[in-house]
Amino acid sequence: MDLEEFANAFAASSKAIPIEMAVRFKMVVKDIEKTAKEELGIYQPSVGPFEAWESLAQSTMEQRVSSGYSADEPLLRSGELRDSIESEVIGLAAIVGTKSEIGFWQEMGTLRIPPRPFIGPAYVRKVDSLLDEVGLSIIHGFKAY
């Protein structure tokens, strides 16, 4: 490949790479959303800066049972919290989260309940795949030429 061919390949790839990145980025964001939803109902181990979830208090388990739910599925009752988790992608910016106030207090904890983060850990679990997809976007962008 001579210098002119390289310049042409570079120019063509500069158009293809952003398209590849946008497609792959949306896939990873949807995967983060799915992972966050899967965090609910199962005790989560520590990951990154997030500590492992504490066990539910005995009084909470009893209250869950008396309300018709299983005793020990943290953050999962009716599925309302899980179903409130959404993602939005605008260009190469994304948000995965919930507008649920309950979700906020569970993620952060309160004076009476320990934090049981499910959004933050989902991001941490998927950061490597995000970086892999960025790399693949660049490779495929150059191959598009």
In short:
The chain has 145 residues and is mainly alpha-helical.
Q: What class, by secondary structure content?
A: mainly alpha
Count of spatially separate domains = 1
End-to-end distance: 13 Å
**Radius of gyration from CA coordinates:** 21 Å
**Sheet with the most strands?**
2 strands, antiparallel
Which H/E pattern describes the elements?
Answer: HHHEEHH
Structure description:
It is a single chain. This protein is mainly alpha-helical and 145 residues long. The chain has one domain (3-143). It has 5 helices and 2 strands. It has a two-stranded antiparallel sheet. Helix 1 (3-39) runs antiparallel to helix 5 (119-143). The protein is elongated. The mean pLDDT is 88.
Helix-strand blueprint:
Layout (H helix, E strand, L loop, with lengths): L2 H37 L18 H9 L13 H5 E6 L2 E6 L2 H8 L10 H25 L2
Helix pairs in contact: 1-5
Give the tags.
single chain; 145 residues; mainly alpha; two-stranded antiparallel ribbon
